[in-house]
Known about the structure:
The chain has 84 residues and is an all-alpha fold. The protein has helices at 13-16, 21-38, 44-51, 55-61, 74-83. It has 5 helices and no strands.
Amino acid sequence: MMSQLKIEYPETLPDALQQTREEFEQEAKMAMAVKLFEMKRISSGLAAQLAGVDRVSFLLNLHRYGVAMIDLTEEELLSDLTNA
Length: 84
């Protein structure tokens, strides 16, 4: 079951961004999903579902928002290398 979030924005905002209403709303959903993923609040799978795209597409578009696909600390990376 899906819930719905309603966000009000000025009618002129999509035009100001040179986007259609649909393009703007899709980008807004993606931006929210990316931010929640970046904050480690949700998984990439849940973020993709929120954005309305498949997981691979979500991950491949993270660079557009300056977010790393994999965000490991140095300790986590060294641990992964040691256990590989």
